[in-house]
């Protein structure tokens, strides 16, 4: 009956059509970039941006890949984001264990401190960090960026995880305590397995957020060997050497990993959100 | 550091007391001190000096700040920030509310959940990009000579190079980039709204707009707050798109505080002045966060009063 009504009222289709048009507008840049990354410059100037590519012209992509050594950039991004994600989850967990379950004194102030740290603009830290990293010989190293983002992400993670662990079923912990379990065993044997969904969501968020960072990596990673994907693309943007299709290829190479992560992680993220809702 | 639990009897069962938990905070506190607290204090201290980055800074008191308040570029950069708050927080929230409600309360019911999810994914896709990559995409699309937009429409507009329209162009790009975030958050929020509210309103013959205004918006007010707060902070901090698209130009048509401080730090060697800009920006962000949280708390208290 419902479907019947739907077909009789053209207004409903108008709403759907309007939303579909908007979706096309949102996706338009992705389509255009993909179409033109596979064209030769001659094909682009002859057929314009909307024509379909005649074949799989890979020269633009290959030329750009070689020029920026894109494989190395991917590896740098993977390494930095992966290490940061794991280290920041561990730090957040340790903090949240002390604050949410241990309920140490002054926890409110510590949480406020972490929250403020998370909202601070990186511009207010960048120059001293730049200066200090030069002093200790960490400038232009992946380690400097890893350390900085581990702390920045952990500041947010602590805030979120503390409130999650604050609701942790205390009965389980008390029972373990009576059985003589140590603090460390309670953390790794009980708290970690039970909060695994939240931890994996945090891990994914930290990974993606670190991958997407631009400002601090751009300042700290100046040599070609250390740059991440967004830094390499952002710094090269608008260079005179780039022709239309090579620019398009560079944009496509930036889009692919981001969309891939989205597709890979989507299910874990939705599951994490659902688990949070049930709890 | 260890403190014995004062409760009598508890000491026997929990020999280590509560103080032992402090140990778990030590690694973070050390790193936090070295990477956030000390650098931030150094930044504040530097803002009272004249310093090129090498040699000894010269103490000049509040001179950087008095200069700052007379600096037209600084004020212009904050005006651009307000424009970006509109583009990144206000407009996406408003459009996002309408879209989320339309998808949840209309499309999902009339055309099925799959259609709604597919549309939501399309709106969200720009959000998955690193913001610098979004800048690269649009830098290419809007290139004055070979860009796809000019080619398709057969026009010759210098979207990012004309001082009269550069800011508007950046704003439009940021709406495109941000829109998916509120849509997803609001749709998630709508999941927890009691469906009987909508059913009752529908039976009463309330129009879609009335339901939107009287049910949807009040019910997901917490989500609206979160989105407005996080997007406003993001807009105040915006750097990547400006760096990639315009470098603050042409002239200073798209200059924002973060890029302005970056210029002073790393290109003009005015580290003291750059630090003052960064300190003011940090202060504004902390105040905005605080105000938002106050307003939100006020709203919650009102809710509780009306509930009881």
Automatic annotation (TrEMBL), chain A:
<keyword id="KW-1133">Transmembrane helix</keyword>
<feature type="transmembrane region" description="Helical">
    <location>
        <begin position="74"/>
        <end position="96"/>
    </location>
</feature>
<keyword id="KW-0812">Transmembrane</keyword>
<feature type="transmembrane region" description="Helical">
    <location>
        <begin position="246"/>
        <end position="265"/>
    </location>
</feature>
<comment type="similarity">
    <text>Belongs to the binding-protein-dependent transport system permease family.</text>
</comment>
<feature type="transmembrane region" description="Helical">
    <location>
        <begin position="186"/>
        <end position="211"/>
    </location>
</feature>
<feature type="transmembrane region" description="Helical">
    <location>
        <begin position="108"/>
        <end position="131"/>
    </location>
</feature>
<feature type="domain" description="ABC transmembrane type-1">
    <location>
        <begin position="74"/>
        <end position="265"/>
    </location>
</feature>
<protein>
    <submittedName>
        <fullName>ABC transporter permease</fullName>
    </submittedName>
</protein>
<dbReference type="GO" id="GO:0055085">
    <property type="term" value="P:transmembrane transport"/>
</dbReference>
<dbReference type="InterPro" id="IPR000515">
    <property type="entry name" value="MetI-like"/>
</dbReference>
<feature type="transmembrane region" description="Helical">
    <location>
        <begin position="12"/>
        <end position="35"/>
    </location>
</feature>
<feature type="transmembrane region" description="Helical">
    <location>
        <begin position="143"/>
        <end position="165"/>
    </location>
</feature>
<dbReference type="InterPro" id="IPR035906">
    <property type="entry name" value="MetI-like_sf"/>
</dbReference>
<keyword id="KW-0813">Transport</keyword>
<dbReference type="Pfam" id="PF00528">
    <property type="entry name" value="BPD_transp_1"/>
</dbReference>
<keyword id="KW-1003">Cell membrane</keyword>
<keyword id="KW-0472">Membrane</keyword>
<dbReference type="GO" id="GO:0005886">
    <property type="term" value="C:plasma membrane"/>
</dbReference>
Automatic annotation (TrEMBL), chain B:
<feature type="transmembrane region" description="Helical">
    <location>
        <begin position="82"/>
        <end position="107"/>
    </location>
</feature>
<dbReference type="InterPro" id="IPR051393">
    <property type="entry name" value="ABC_transporter_permease"/>
</dbReference>
<dbReference type="InterPro" id="IPR035906">
    <property type="entry name" value="MetI-like_sf"/>
</dbReference>
<feature type="transmembrane region" description="Helical">
    <location>
        <begin position="224"/>
        <end position="245"/>
    </location>
</feature>
<comment type="similarity">
    <text>Belongs to the binding-protein-dependent transport system permease family.</text>
</comment>
<dbReference type="InterPro" id="IPR000515">
    <property type="entry name" value="MetI-like"/>
</dbReference>
<feature type="transmembrane region" description="Helical">
    <location>
        <begin position="271"/>
        <end position="293"/>
    </location>
</feature>
<keyword id="KW-1003">Cell membrane</keyword>
<keyword id="KW-0813">Transport</keyword>
<keyword id="KW-1133">Transmembrane helix</keyword>
<feature type="domain" description="ABC transmembrane type-1">
    <location>
        <begin position="78"/>
        <end position="292"/>
    </location>
</feature>
<dbReference type="GO" id="GO:0005886">
    <property type="term" value="C:plasma membrane"/>
</dbReference>
<dbReference type="Pfam" id="PF00528">
    <property type="entry name" value="BPD_transp_1"/>
</dbReference>
<feature type="transmembrane region" description="Helical">
    <location>
        <begin position="21"/>
        <end position="42"/>
    </location>
</feature>
<feature type="transmembrane region" description="Helical">
    <location>
        <begin position="165"/>
        <end position="188"/>
    </location>
</feature>
<feature type="transmembrane region" description="Helical">
    <location>
        <begin position="119"/>
        <end position="141"/>
    </location>
</feature>
<protein>
    <submittedName>
        <fullName>ABC transporter permease</fullName>
    </submittedName>
</protein>
<dbReference type="GO" id="GO:0055085">
    <property type="term" value="P:transmembrane transport"/>
</dbReference>
<keyword id="KW-0812">Transmembrane</keyword>
<keyword id="KW-0472">Membrane</keyword>
